[in-house]
Write a structure and sequence with these properties.
Shape: globular
CATH class of the largest domain: Mainly Alpha
Largest sheet: 4 strands, mixed
Strand content: 5-15%
Bound molecules: glutathione
Helix content: 55-70%
Number of domains: 2
CATH architecture of the largest domain: Up-down Bundle
Order of helices and strands: EHEHEEHHHHHHH
Number of helices: 9
């Protein structure tokens, strides 16, 4: 049995490294980078999109960070995978939501913070600030009166959404208008498994 996770931790691969650490998996980490490493002929055989992360689990190759996470959580269960079909549906919903509704404006705000020159324009940043309010409000409302998204303990739904929302923290987005979200994000990102993944 062997699992390889491709992608350095300072990339979207942090999402999958976090999932693997939560699940307590044994894995090999190939720290493929995003400035050339993901476009080598060798890596393109793993992910023809030329992007990290990707995983190879005994020959089962999966790419797309949150799909890798859903696969690993579904396979290894533990507390991360929901214990009923309704919550499985909700975990899929929140994962797709994070990618389609929240990720794009958060990426613009992240790049504005971490790319000193040649990052997004002022107009793009202003648009992203406006655009991000709706998903932040939706998430905050969903978390009102709850510790975690599915109502029980921490699951893959929380991990997937929080791993995208991490960018709001790094970008220094003011979350004071979204107190339930902010408290949940602190809870999720305070987990030791994320610390271990960040050290990879
Ligand atoms: N939707 C994909 C996006 C992956 C992605 O864009 N990864 C970046 C690093 S964070 C990358 O590999 N960029 C290299 C490139 O595009 O050449 C996922 O979530 O896995």
């Amino acid at each position: 049995m062997s699992l390889t996770i491709y992608g350095l931790s300072a990339s979207r691969a942090i999402r999958t490294l976090w999932a693997a650490e939560e699940l307590g998996l044994d894995y090999t980490h190939e720290a493929v980078d995003f400035s050339g490493g993901s476009r080598t002929p060798e890596f393109l055989k793993i992910n023809p999109n030329g992007r990290i992360p990707a995983i190879d689990d005994d020959g089962v190759v999966i790419w797309e960070s949150l799909a890798c996470n859903l696969y690993l959580a579904r396979k290894h269960g533990g507390g991360l995978w929901p214990d009923n079909i309704a919550d499985e549906g909700r975990a899929l919903q929140w994962s797709f939501w994070a990618m389609t509704e929240a990720e794009t404006p958060l990426l613009t705000l992240l790049l504005d913070k971490v790319v000193p020159e040649g990052g997004p324009s002022d107009a793009e940043v202003a648009a992203a600030r406006e655009e991000v309010v709706v998903p932040l409000q939706v998430l905050n409302d969903a978390l009102r009166g709850k510790e975690y998204l599915l109502g029980g303990g921490f699951t893959i739904a929380d991990l997937n959404v929080a791993s995208v929302l991490l960018w709001a923290m790094i970008a220094g987005v003011d979350l004071s208008a979204f107190p339930d979200l902010a408290a949940w994000l602190e809870r999720c990102t305070g987990r030791p498994a994320l610390r271990r993944a960040q050290g990879k």
